[in-house]
């Protein structure tokens, strides 16, 4: 749901003054020089030739062109460009690349998948592909609901005999080497007025206006505005802001999903001279809420690029954590479990299912596996009291946002780890940490010679890294450095990223 706000998410917005600049600026192109573009030496140094050297293949020359570079015959095709004029000029559907991919692979049956906000353009794109890709016999649109990149439906496309699936509007959470047929991801980059974005931020957070607290900015958004975010960062730095564009791999820098958001170490970013705030570029707040859950101590503002307005967004962290804690505690006494494996696209991950089944077997519990495309309280309620608690392997936000609507506890894989006793709850981590800290210092005040407390917060008490609502709730469902409960397809050891480093 990158392009539309979540239908059941309510927002309490506070209006912030917009900028007066409103003209759409054309994108700029930056020339990039790569090592492959360097000139070869005109006269190589003499070498001694031996019989063995003659058997060796000649040294490989530097590549001067990308193998799959789109030929000029496609990019300069006047008929194709005229047909593309029927699409919004500020939406990049990457038609040229799609046509070249189809021609180069001679795909005959092409499946197109869109989120609901882009379905209105599906038939136009289908007509263009059919007209300008001679190898295509059939181009069809997958009509099932598509909430995000987790819903990429290569399985249905393969069942329909498709040679290629083109998925629009989301980043590639499911790697192309994991899909059963070739898949092309089109992010649908949207051009916005970057000048208006930076001016709106300056008017509200002017770093040189002493009447306004100095702001250190975290800049993020949905994948459609990733290009605009990268363009806005240097412009905001010219205005005197310190700007961080965070990244949670495998997502792009600055990209946030409704289930995956990086945790920003504010202590490393804050220079102590101002407030750290988030400016999130999106037309809805569903994905923003993931960042707010993962970073409860960072004030969040949402910039709507379509109206050029900045909104202060708030989230009930205490209420959410209390609801999830109660569901976990209630499910700890469950004997009969139900595990829902989502079948909407690739939402359900068999690896998580295998992990949960192993844990259930080790603890002697009874469980039932249910395959379901979309969960609802009414459908889950049909199972009655035969199931004491549920675990859903689909979307964590189903439990976080609507868990109270279900009669029985509906847990995420992360919450299931807590309920089964394999991982401490966030409220339990706080209690243990506080007990340990108090045993090593004088109540967290004036300890280690520091007035703020080496194990306390700025006021001398509490615990660093733990908020007043009982610790942090991770939003790492697709993060490479996330917990073992998550659904990332390419788990890698975490390492520092230069993108998350702010140079003074």
Automatic annotation (TrEMBL):
Gene3D superfamilies: Diphthamide synthesis DPH1/DPH2 domain 1 (3.40.50.11840), Diphthamide synthesis DPH1/DPH2 domain 2 (3.40.50.11850), Diphthamide synthesis DPH1/DPH2 domain 3 (3.40.50.11860). Its EC number is 2.5.1.108. It comes from Centaurea solstitialis (yellow star-thistle). Its cofactor is [4Fe-4S] cluster. Signal peptide: none annotated. It catalyses: L-histidyl-[translation elongation factor 2] + S-adenosyl-L-methionine = 2-[(3S)-amino-3-carboxypropyl]-L-histidyl-[translation elongation factor 2] + S-methyl-5'-thioadenosine + H(+). This is 2-(3-amino-3-carboxypropyl)histidine synthase subunit 1. InterPro entries: DPH1/DPH2, DPH1/DPH2_1, DPH1/DPH2_2, DPH1/DPH2_3. Pathway: Protein modification; peptidyl-diphthamide biosynthesis.
């Amino acid at each position: 749901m990158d392009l539309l706000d979540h239908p059941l998410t309510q927002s309490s917005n506070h209006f912030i003054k917009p900028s007066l600049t409103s003209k759409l600026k054309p994108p700029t192109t930056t020339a990039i020089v790569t090592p492959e573009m360097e000139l070869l030496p005109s006269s190589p140094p003499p070498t001694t030739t031996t019989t063995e050297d003659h058997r060796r293949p000649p040294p490989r020359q530097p590549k001067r062109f990308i193998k799959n570079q789109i030929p000029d015959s496609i990019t300069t095709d006047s008929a194709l460009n005229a047909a593309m004029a029927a699409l919004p000029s500020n939406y990049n559907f990457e038609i040229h690349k799609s046509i070249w991919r189809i021609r180069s692979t001679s795909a005959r049956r092409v499946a197109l998948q869109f989120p609901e906000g882009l379905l209105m353009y599906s038939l136009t794109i289908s007509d263009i592909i059919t007209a300008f890709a001679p190898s295509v016999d059939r181009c069809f649109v997958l009509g099932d609901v598509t909430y995000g990149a987790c819903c990429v439906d290569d399985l249905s496309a393969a069942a329909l005999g498709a040679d290629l699936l083109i998925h629009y509007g989301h980043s590639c959470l499911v790697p192309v080497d994991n899909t059963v047929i070739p898949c092309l991801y089109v992010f649908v980059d949207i051009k916005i007025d970057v000048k208006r974005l930076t001016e709106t931020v300056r008017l509200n957070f002017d770093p040189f206006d002493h009447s306004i607290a100095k702001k250190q900015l975290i800049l993020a958004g949905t994948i459609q505005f990733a290009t605009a975010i990268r363009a806005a960062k240097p412009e905001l730095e010219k205005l005197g802001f310190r700007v961080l564009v965070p990244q949670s791999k495998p997502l792009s820098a600055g990209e946030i999903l409704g289930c995956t958001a990086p945790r920003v170490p504010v202590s490393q970013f804050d220079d102590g001279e101002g407030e750290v705030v988030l400016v999130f570029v999106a037309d809805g707040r569903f994905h923003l809420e993931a960042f707010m859950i993962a970073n409860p101590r960072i004030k969040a503002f949402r910039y709507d690029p379509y109206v050029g307005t900045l909104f202060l967004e708030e989230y009930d962290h205490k209420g959410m954590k209390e609801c999830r804690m109660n569901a976990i505690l209630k499910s700890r006494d469950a004997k009969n479990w139900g595990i829902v494996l989502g079948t909407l696209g690739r939402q359900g991950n068999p690896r998580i299912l295998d992990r949960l089944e192993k844990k259930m077997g080790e603890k002697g519990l009874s469980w039932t596996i249910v395959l379901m495309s979309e969960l609802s309280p009414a459908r889950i309620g049909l199972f009655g009291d035969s199931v004491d608690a549920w675990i859903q392997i689909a979307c964590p936000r189903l439990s976080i946002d609507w868990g109270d609507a279900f009669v029985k506890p509906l847990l995420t894989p992360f919450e299931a780890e807590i309920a089964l006793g394999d991982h401490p709850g966030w409220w339990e981590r706080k209690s243990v940490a506080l007990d340990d800290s108090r045993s090593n210092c004088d109540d967290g005040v004036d300890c280690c010679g520091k007035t703020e407390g080496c194990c306390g917060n700025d006021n001398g008490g509490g615990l660093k890294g733990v908020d007043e609502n009982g610790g942090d709730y991770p939003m790492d469902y697709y993060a490479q450095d996330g917990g073992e409960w998550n659904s990332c397809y390419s788990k890698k050891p975490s390492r520092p990223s230069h993108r998350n480093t702010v140079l003074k």
